[in-house]
Design a protein that fits this description.
0% strand, elongated, 9 helices, mainly alpha
Length: 263
């Protein structure tokens, strides 16, 4: 009875250890092959388009809506205490440091992470990965690296756009719903937008990009027993990437606060 009760826990521990080991080996292979020729520039550009350009409408809607909601909630909450003039500073600081980078990363984890895992998993099932190996080409260089590098390039740019769009959404609500003077709101955002706030959020996006791309590629390559596992790999990729972003955000925020004190 005790053995039967503890077996699921042991299976879970084994699965997590296999995941950690697989991630380490995948990163090792990427570092080893990333500095050797050939470089598949066309594949990289294609992934930049797929990940970046096609994700922009999603980021646009999400960041704008979040900025509007934050401005509305802060405004109604602080109005009781006469703190409505602090809304622009609170909204801008929160978007720059946390909301802009994190929600952009979560949206990409849902869209891009699922796409990567399902696409690579389908390639494994249809033996396209085996065909690449048979032709003497590395799947790491042709499949994994373009996606990881594209995420590292695109996610910081999308987060920067989300910061701007989120503040525009906050400005619209602040002016139309809260009655804040447009010029006053604009000046307060500019006063708040110091380099420390911006870099604290911007620096996280490079880690979030790895949290999305590496597990998604790993789960896609781990598919073995047919198309049913493609769906499982997609689910695991999205859940794992999202959890890594949310948990990692806490530790990264702490690290950046410590760095700010030192600098």
């Amino acid at each position: 009875m005790i053995h039967a009760a503890t077996q699921p826990f042991k299976d879970w521990i084994e699965e997590q250890l296999n995941f950690l080991g697989g991630i380490v080996y995948l990163i090792r292979d990427c570092l080893r092959e990333g500095f050797t020729k050939p470089f598949y520039w066309k594949l990289l550009i294609e992934q930049i388009y797929q990940i970046g350009f096609r994700s922009f409408p999603l980021v646009l809607v999400t960041s704008g809506a979040i900025g509007m909601v934050m401005s509305l909630q802060f405004g109604f909450g602080l109005e009781k205490f006469g703190g409505k003039p602090y809304v622009p500073r609170l909204v801008a600081s929160t978007i720059f440091r946390e909301i802009g980078p994190m929600f952009t990363s979560l949206m990409l984890a849902a869209r891009v992470g699922a796409g990567m895992a399902s696409e690579i998993g389908s390639m494994v099932v249809t033996q396209q990965i085996d065909a690449i190996k048979a032709l003497g080409t590395s799947p790491i260089k042709k499949i994994v690296l373009p996606r990881i590098i594209a995420c590292l390039i695109i996610l910081p740019l999308l987060a920067a756009m989300a910061n701007v769009i989120g503040n525009i959404g906050g400005w619209l609500v602040g002016v139309s719903e809260l009655g804040i003077d447009p010029q006053f709101y604009y000046r307060r955002v500019l006063d708040t937008a110091n380099i420390k706030d911006y870099m604290a959020g911007f620096g996280k996006t490079f880690f979030f990009a790895l949290f999305i791309a590496v597990p998604s590629c790993y789960f896609g390559l781990s598919v073995k027993n047919g198309t049913q596992e493609v769906g499982m790999a997609t689910r695991k990729a999205v859940v794992t990437s999202s959890l890594l972003i949310l948990i990692g955000d806490f530790f990264l925020a702490k690290v950046f606060w410590i760095l700010e004190k030192w600098l």
